[in-house]
Amino acid sequence: MMQSQNSTPQQAQALVSITMGDCTIHFSVDATLLLGPDAKKVVTNSAGENEFHLIPFSRVLSADASLVDLLTLLSRMLEINNPPTPCSQQDEIVSMLSSTCIIDASYHPPRNITSILQSHPDRSGPRSKTLQGMGWFPSGTLVVLSSCAAASNTEKEQREERLLEKFVQWQSRHVLGQEEFGYNLPALAGKQDGILTKTTPVQYIGLGNNHNNAKKDNKLLKPTDIFNAMQQRFQHEAHPIIHPNGLVHPKRTHKRTERQRQERLDAILNNLQQRSIKKTSAQVRHMLIKSRSVGDKKLRMEDRFHLEIVRFDDTVHGNNKQTEENRDYRFFSRQTTAGKVASAVASSLGSCDDRAAEFLVSVSAASRDSKHKYRRLPNTMSLHDAQGAGWLKEFDLVLIRIYLLPNETHSNDVMVGPTKSVLEEESDDESVADDVNDDTMDEDVVGNENRDAEMMEQSTSIGQAREVTPISLDESSKPSESYNLQQRLQSVFQSMDAAEVDSNQASNKNKSLKKKKPISKQLQNMLMKSKATGNARIKQEDRVYLRVLLFHDDNNKGVQSCRLSCSYKFFDKRNDVAHIISSSDTNKSFVDKDEDVEKELILQLSNGSSDPLKEEAFYRKLAPSLTLGDAMQKKLLENFDSVLVRMFDKQVGVSSCEEWLGHSGCGLGS
Questions:
Q1: For the chain, how far is it from start to end, CA to CA, in angstroms?
Q2: Are residues 547 and 640 in contact, defined by beta-carbon separation less than 8 angstroms?
Q3: Tens digit of pLDDT for each residue in 309-364?
Q4: Could you tell me if 213 and 104 lie in one domain?
Q5: Rounded to whole angstroms, what are the CA distances from 60 to 15, 66, 140, 282, 528?
Q6: Residues 149, 90: one domain?
Q7: pLDDT digits (tens, 9 = 90+) for 258-268
Q8: Do residue 531 and residue 549 come from a single domain?
Q9: DSSP annotation of 164
């Protein structure tokens, strides 16, 4: 802020004062320094040896004022009743400091600052100091006591030190005397104004909230009575506080934890399932399932498909089959396939070598009693396509069945193999056999009728009783070796898809939730390009990007997660299948040195059906001399596809996969 040319020096000084701030100095001056000669004798005779008579007053100075300005003001106040001697202003300050002792009582403990004031005699420069520098902003307290002149500096310092000790003792007595209460010092009762008087004593009126019936004995309240009353104040029942409007405020409830919220929703869902099926209960059930479901939060609400899932383990013997006690409520994308849903729910199967999972839905059976049975959805069928075909609805109760892969070591009482697909037609013989063996089927599914009735209850789409129809295999209907191989290859692709989904979900947890749409196919291809390795000399237009799965097949051990590996590579269109197999086998721990170990490249093909709902996947190997360009021309392979490099030992009894021969029904485009 610039000062105008027409402003006076007084206005400029006021402007600086406002800018820097003001300091309020509280003085307590000894009465002998301010009174006249006659009054000094009266005060000296009436005061004791350790008593002080101080006269307080205050002055406001600028925060940047020097100590010389403060001493000048103090010397002028002391000269009111004492005629000054003809001398300079500096000599007056020196004379005043020699006969006084100035104590800074702004902080505790007080300190003697007479020597500090003497060492800063200038208004500016290195030998000057401001009031703010002394720590007196916004206020300070100074005590000015009378001190006799001394012959030497040492004697003066000793006198000032004794005077400071005497002042500290007097200050302690004075402050404690003002702060003492009447019941601690009964002799002071009635003498301290504003603390306690004999006309208004503190009375003990008893305990509790009933003051009207309390006995008043007109006795002073003692400290022991106060302590006893504080200890016994909660022994009597406190009545609720009723406000003038007649409302009683209840206690504030604590916020529910996530676990308590889930338990409450589960209890409400169970109660709804035990009641009769009504429209209102179905709508409430849908809302509860939505709030209880978990999944990828990046999915938009219109893209979510909510399901009530029960995991059923069908790998144990006899009547010991069990289901998980708690149901699982999840939501998936409508484009998610049934195989990915089964892999996500049965994620613990990664370390199991002879088990697989399938997605079962309730379908109408062509029988006389119109019962509902469970059938398997194809792994390549999406939830949206299944809903369009009428096999599945949102909020339905579905079953994820864990079963054993076919193997000769399994006993006859174990349910081996998958359930019939929804695409397979049911014959009359099968329906008659189901009617005859109703009792045995109920025992084979769960082994507990109450638990089965509670778990396989009503869903939103079908309100009738449901029944699980497993596949029982006898000696004459055991699957062939080729069928077993197809099941193992299907489990390999499912496990690798589930591992990729889990890794994507783990990486998305640390990212922001701004993007609501799922990852598109184009973005997945870009990620595969960034991770792929290969010969950098190959031109971009000649490159074929593939996801290569390396699988060591052992018929006795089945699919093992430790025998699987996945990598992203790119090849030249002129490279043949044999080159892909040799370049993909980089991990020597998978390969035995025996010459009987064979390798083959397997693709996942379809049956060529024009209807996507009836499309079934199967697996065939490619000839070693077939190039990638020819495979893409025959529509067997596309860019960014997944291929499987399978290694097996013929001596163990593992057979080779069937080769694609190009006949009708065995390829994508043929």
A1: 89
A2: yes
A3: 888 787 765 444 454 445 789 999 999 999 899 888 887 775 555 788 889 888 76
A4: no
A5: 15, 13, 10, 80, 78
A6: yes
A7: 677 667 767 76
A8: yes
A9: H
